[in-house]
Amino acid sequence: MSPLPGWRAALRIARRDALRAKGRSALVVAMIALPVVGVTALDLTARSTETTPARVLTETLGSADARFTDAGLGPVRIHQMPDAFNWTTPGDPPEQRPGEEPAPVDVPATFPDGSRFLTEQSVPASVTTRHGIADTEITELRVADPMMRGRVELTDGAYPRARNEVAATTAFAEASGLSVGDRVTVRGPQLSYTLTGVVEVPADLNAKSLFAVDGAVIAPWQQAADRDKKILPPQAGEMTWLVNGPSKAGVTWRDVLAANKTGVLVTSRQVVLDPPPASEIPLAEKMDLGSTSDPKMTAAALTVVVMAVLEIVLLAGPAFAVGARRSRRQLGLVGSCGGSRGQVGAVVLAGGAVLGAVGAAIGVAAGFGLTALFRPMIEEFAGRRFGELSIQPLEITAIAVLGLVTGVLAALAPAIVAARQSVLESLTGRRGTRRGSRVLPVVGVIALAAGVAVAVYGGISGSTNLVAGGSVLAELGVLGCVPVIVGFLGRLGSRLPMTPRFALRDAARNRGRTAPAVAAVMAAVAGSVAIATYTSSSSAEQQADYVPNLTAGTAALTVSQTAETAELPRVRAAVDQNLPVSGGRVDFEKVWAGSNCSVYYEEANGCGTVELVKPTGKGHTCPLQGKGAKELALRISSDEHKRLMNSPACLDELYTSALFGNDDDIVVGGADLLASYVELDDPAAAKALAEGTPVLLNPAYAKNGEVTLKADHIYNGRDKKNRAQYPGKARTTTDRLKVYVAPARFAATPGIRMILPKQTAARLGLHTEDHGSVYRLERNPTDAENQAMAAAITQTGDGAYVTTPMEPTSSDDATILLILALFAGVVTLGAAAITTGLSKADAEADLITLSAVGAPPGVRRSLSGFQCLVVALTGVLLGTLAGIVPAVALRLTDLGAAMEVMRRDPLVSAYTPIVMPWGTIGLLTLAVPVLAGLLAAGLTSSRLTLTRRAG
To answer: Which of 462, 551, 410 minimizes the C-alpha distance to 30?
Structure first.
């Protein structure tokens, strides 16, 4: 007989049971639907933003058929791949003499007959804005042409069509304060344009640039430079041609090969999307056309899917157990009417199928809706437009089936338990006693130890697959140990008050419902802690590798030419008025020997130099550079390497700055520079400067409290003033100077190695001149303030510039950590709520007894709160410990890779810290369990209706 009639009845019973218990059904549907929503939205977003060849072509070509580019070798044959990313010449490229330009190529002559084309060429420029002046890029391209649809889209106003019109990207318009109708002037040639429209580049929403028609900027700029030699000529990029081939023919592979004969590189839409066979590609035999799939990414994706299914099963399983508990009498009636154990279990299993199907359908629909609703926000965050939503029917179907299967798997364990229960126990409401498995904890401990060992070995050996596999195995091992851990909790409550003692012992007695919920919390928290730990550690590594260009909270004004020194007062006033300056400024001077190299730099050996001579030996010579460096790198750890990299001897081996006017970071200044910029508050150092003693910030240059200052007094013949004063031959002087040596931590001061008093420089025969100022800032300046300052400086002669601190690479680590904490918190609250509901169902008789013997009404509330707290806190603590394993293993993998690079180049950082996200852990271990307990207590009714106990 077919089993279909039995399953049909089971599905009908399950459907009716789901409708009767609407609250429990909604909870299960929500737990199954939420991951399906996330996976569906993620699939839609990933597919819609995927850089497919068709999308890349639209972002590059618009609706054009091809892009033609001069390869830059002259009219010589080249061979290219269909995607035009790789190309070469059949033989050796033609030799060119130094300074010789390749012969020009007539690119339009290679277009197919009947083609239509646009030209594109960009030039960097400084333009006026509403706030002042800003640097940008101007692209000469007729963006109004239909050929540009998909690449540039109008958002406001109109496209530029005349040579006195431009369009701005949205990001540039917002930063500059410009709007449609405003005037924009290109500084230098003083070319003025009207802003007719605002456009966006779908491939780069953050692009800050301008668009003009061809011939509107570069040609008149060059003409202006030809007329006036004071105007710098435009530094235009290479020209490219966007081509539409003959109607319906496009640009074929034959057309590409024809263009290659004269040195023209072609990116053709038709060829990229439908490439020719390898036999027709001359370059194919030299290229590797193998698969580019990443097995590591495949393994990681599979691991995420498995853990997600496990998470849902652990969360939804107790909810099905709640339903099975409440339907005991109904299931007993099925058995008493002749139903087999398989049919009893099928009723529970059918409940999983019904709720799983509903959850999957709702989840897929909600995933589509949320993706469409939050699409603009996602696009802004990603910095690019989706285009059309890319829907993969097979993938969406697989996601829905996964939700259905997850519901069935979640009901599997409760179905087995219900099928094993005797009919008498089901009808009377009594529960049999089953001993916990003694094998499972042993297997769990073995799996935990093996998983940790595999993960650590994978981290040391650099195998991310072993790390992922070992981490999953370790987590499964902890899951196997959870029932024993829960049972141990009952022994901890002997000295606690009645309510928490009851909660602990109830959790221990009913491990079948407590353990899955604890395991679910543990799994969610473990994943969140693992990602949070890795993210925090990577962020700390980036912070350690960051080399500041200025002291934090400062800005430096410097003049670029000696002739501009007279304008310094006006420039300083411009900075004071336009930047968020706090306090007064500190002025400094540059120092040099002989003729000033910033003026007389054209001739070889036409100017003087001054430098600090670094002693040799321990504490002076960087051991990570030169002879023996690689041998040392093989012996030291990453922490020892970091200590050496941060030592004064090695600090300035990779990075020096001439910001303060001297290539050797020597600056002339006083005690105010020490206090404001160096942040050295030492009366002894200030006194030393006042007495003419230099202050050395890097102790590696001092020996016995002295430094060696070497100066080449070379005077240029064009330097009439100084040449008349020093008519003799060039000379070299070496002076030993007593110095005040600052503590070693000040060796990292950006741009300054030694502060030299002005009177000491004069005594040594060196020249000094006012060079700029240092300012303390209240905050980083805005775009508007920078543009206003640039405009004000331009009015003083445009010979000075202001440097502000470069911020470390921005990241969204704080947002990521918050999202992870919220995710783990929601899962913890859900799992604790499920267990509390199951506890209330199971302990109804005990609660009635408590009420009957005179327990206050508040006991019911406090008991629910403590039961919820036990589950949440236990799961969070176990999850925190479990999540550390993969994070540490992955960081060990990173450490191995960093050490390998460092041993090849000892001056490359190998610092790979492991930083715990204590804020996230604190939120999970303290706030979330307490919140779960309070919510459970607050939402539980203290009233209890006394009923007659069965039996």
So the answer is: 410
Edge-to-edge strands of the sheet including 586-592?
Answer: 740-741, 695-696, 754-756, 666-668, 586-592, 767-776, 554-559, 800-803
* CB-CB neighbours of 950 under 10 Å: 10
Six token digits for residue 832: 């604790």
CA 181, CA 849: separation in Å to the nearest integer? 81
Whole-prediction pTM: 0.72
Q: How far apart are CA 22 and CA 632, in angstroms?
A: 70
> Measured between alpha carbons, how far is 115 from 438 in angstroms, rounded to an integer?
80
d(C-alpha 549, C-alpha 556), whole Å: 10
Cα of 426 vs its chain's centroid, Å: 55
Q: What share of the chain is helix, strand, coil (3-state, %, to 5)?
A: 55, 15, 35
Work out the burial of residue 503: count CB atoms within 10 Å of its CB; fewer than 13 is exposed, 13-18 middle, 19 or more buried. Answer: buried
Q: How far apart are CA 111 and CA 117, in angstroms?
A: 9
Distance CA 40, CA 44 (A): 6
The CA distance from 627 to 632, in Å, is 10
How many angstroms separate the Cα of 652 from the Cα of each of 642, 661, 665, 749, 906? Answer: 14, 17, 10, 10, 14
CB 940 within 8 A of CB 879: no
For 162-193, write each residue's pLDDT tens digit.
Answer: 999 999 999 999 999 999 999 999 998 999 99
Look at the block and give the residue holding tokens 């009851």. 502
- What is d(CA 395, CA 399) in angstroms, rounded to the nearest whole number? 6
Cα gap 21→42, rounded to integer Å: 32
Q: How many CB atoms lie within 10 A of CB 466?
A: 20
More confident residue, 216 or 917: 216
Ramachandran angles phi, psi of 202, nearest 5°: -55, -30
Strands, E assignment, 524-575: 554-559
Average pLDDT, the chain: 81
Classify strands 209-212 and 133-140 as parallel, antiparallel or unpaired.
parallel
Question: To which H or E segment does residue 251 belong?
Answer: none
Sheet holding 609-613, edge to edge: 609-613, 706-713, 731-738
Sign (positive/negative) of CA torsion 870, 872, 873, 879? positive
Return the closest-CA partner of residue 513 out of 810, 890, 867, 29.
Answer: 867
Q: What is the C-alpha to C-alpha distance for residues 569 and 562, in angstroms, rounded to an integer?
A: 14
**Which tokens go with 623?**
């051991």
| Distance (Å, whole) CA 893 – CA 622 | 28
- Distance between start and end Cα atoms, the chain: 40
Q: DSSP readout, 374-430?
A: SHHHHHHHHTS---S----HHHHHHHHHHHHHHHHHHHHHHHHHHHHS-HHHHHHT-
Residue 158 CA to residue 195 CA, distance in Å, equals 9
Residue 130 contacts residue 790 (beta carbons within 8 Å): no
Burial of 762 (0-12, 13-18, 19+ CB in 10 A): middle
Of all residues in the chain, the percent with pLDDT exceeding 70 is 81
d(CA 863, CA 848): 13
